[in-house]
Amino acid sequence: MKFVTVTLSALSLISSTNAFVPASPAAFVRSSSVVSLQAEPTASTSSTRSEFLSQMVGLVVAAGTVTALPGTAQAAKYGSIGVSSPGVLDPKDAIVDDEIYQSSTVQNALKSVKEYSARVGEMRSSLEANSQIDLGPILRKEFDFSKLRSSLNELNSAYDEETQRGTDRLIRGIMQNLTELEAANAQKEGIERSERRVANINAKLDKLQNAFNDFLAFAP
Known about the structure:
Number of domains: 3
Order of helices and strands: HHHHHHHHH
CATH architecture of the largest domain: Up-down Bundle
CATH topology of the largest domain: Four Helix Bundle (Hemerythrin (Met), subunit A)
């Protein structure tokens, strides 16, 4: 009976030991990381972890460098406009189809966009003369969204696809700034605008004017 007990204990011990022996080199590779994490830290383990951490730090730094490079190159290529409006080319790098640009349709669109831009300046002058002026009637009459977008898109058709990737963003900016200006102008009847609200409207006018200027800078 004692012999059987010893034998069974030995078999149990061998079975337990075999559980830690990998069936193949590949299995050892897969389980080594798990075993190393579960084992008690030793001088060898600490050294291995230090080497691993050093390698990971190196990879993170390298990844950060690679990630930063495109942005740096883009800023150098696109100049100041590229910095404030990601994805927008510097106007001097824009490619324009002269035949399309010189067409009557595009030239009429260019004229209209310039007129829209001039009206923004007129609204700014009107607000300076009278801080309580309601710009709503001017916006509704002079800035029809569908007509404005049509003129912007018509002018935009004279540029190549790469240039349009940026000018499309500027067009969306113009439309967004116009919407924000309308919201800022809204005022309850009989309530006088505070200086803060006037300053807010002036800021929206500045944003809209700058958006038009950025877009028109692409026109030769």
